[in-house]
Design brief:
Blueprint: E1 10-14, H1 17-31, E2 39-43, H2 46-51, H3 55-67, E3 69-72, H4 80-85, H5 95-103, E4 106-111, E5 128-133, E6 142-146, E7 149-156, E8 162-170, E9 174-178, H6 183-200, E10 203-208, H7 216-238, E11 243-247, H8 248-257, E12 262-266, H9 268-282, E13 288-293, E14 299-303, H10 309-316, H11 326-343, H12 346-364, E15 367-369, H13 370-373, E16 383-385, H14 387-401
Parallel strand pairs: 1-2, 1-3, 3-14, 5-12, 10-11, 10-12, 15-16
Antiparallel strand pairs: 4-5, 4-13, 6-9, 7-8, 13-14
Helix pairs in contact: 1-14, 3-5, 6-7, 11-12, 12-14
Bound molecules: NADP nicotinamide-adenine-dinucleotide phosphate and magnesium ion.
NADP nicotinamide-adenine-dinucleotide phosphate is lined by residues 74-77, 96, 285-286, 302, 305-310, 323-324, 371.
Amino acid sequence: MEKIKMLTPLVEMDGDEMTRIIWQQIKNQLILPFVELKTEYYDLGLENRNQTNDEVTTLSALATKKYGVAVKCATITPNKQRMSEYNLKEMWKSPNGTIRAILDGTVFRAPITLPIIKPAVKTWEKPITIARHAYGDVYKATEFRVPKGKAELVFTDEKGNEQRETIYNFECDGVLQGQYNKDSSIKSFARSCFNYALNQGEDLWFSTKDTISKKYDHTFKNIFEEIYINEYKEEFEKNGLEYFYTLIDDAVARVIRSKGGFIWALKNYDGDVMSDMVSTAFGSLAMMTSVLVSPDGNFEYEAAHGTVTKHYYKYLKGEETSTNPMATIFAWTGALKKRGELDNLPKLIRFGETLEKACLDTISAGFMTKDLVSLCDSSVEVKPMLTNEFILKIKERLQEIL
Ligand code: NAP
Ligand code: MG
């Protein structure tokens, strides 16, 4: 078979630990034999980030801006323990944080679903995608612990005019927090969500607590509403899609009763919490895909899970591991399909789709990594596999159906 050609390179961001091992296996077994792969390679492994003073992370994000599509392996976010383990010059920041700040995006997380893996919520028939605003709010808040006294909120504009309001007169010790967000970031969040919904052909839900937070959350609601009406309503209606705003507590109740098959946009904290709930209810973190979409049309695909450190330490000792490569494979297929779409390469799109089908067929036939075994329908005869066996099984199926 002739290998499938590519026009523009993918930005390839390599990573750490077990996922770095799997990364190579996926490339060698599932992609390179079939695709004349073009990538611009950036090694975001912690050693190279340390050697380059983390410049490699910035360069990889800038390359994503240039080419439009990236695929990223999971990476270590250093903490104190990693400082000594890797003998680091500095506690380098989270690569995802750096990349997000440069691309200014929204993170979409969707579970890979299969009929034999039943969601904990019986009514869910289709995946639910969480769209999380990844800027500001409690993640950039200023906090005090305070004694007795008066807390005020003060804002001074450029001309020196002051707005001042009492927050609370403390009669005892307490806590205090200041949060912010920016219209520009909320607008780009909204546009990313509307574009993604159109792209996927799915309805968009958005929820905040605007009845209680009449300025803060209400601003989010208003900005979404305004952008929808002015820029997207026509296109949504043409495609038979709906934009639906509701209060977050109402949304939570409706999500549980729903059949799934929509995108749920959430503020930063809500998205953080709800994406863990939704992914667990659908099955496993190892089956959760993640894509960062920027408002000017750049895409960065990755798995939602980390570097699976515990499995890596076993691997280093020469022990066998059964690490699930699904989300990492789907990061590759997502990126290849998007590249195919942008460069008008139907063969590349079809390859991505076929590789995804080969993965799903393999699991449906009962071949899977250990993490999925306990989630499986009891009617299925399950054959637990090691990571490399599972990847080879997918390759067999891929060769059959290509
Ligand atoms: P993790 O790597 O996601 O792993 C947590 C546990 O979840 C694993 O020990 C394993 O459970 C299970 N698991 C996750 N992915 C799996 C897979 N593909 N197959 C099978 N089981 C899987 O999270 P972590 O241990 O908290 O973090 C490890 C490192 O990853 C940290 O250095 C962190 O900074 C980094 N991290 C990176 C990203 C990213 O790059 N996007 C995201 C999160 C964390 P069992 O041990 O029970 O089998
Ligand atoms: Mg979280």
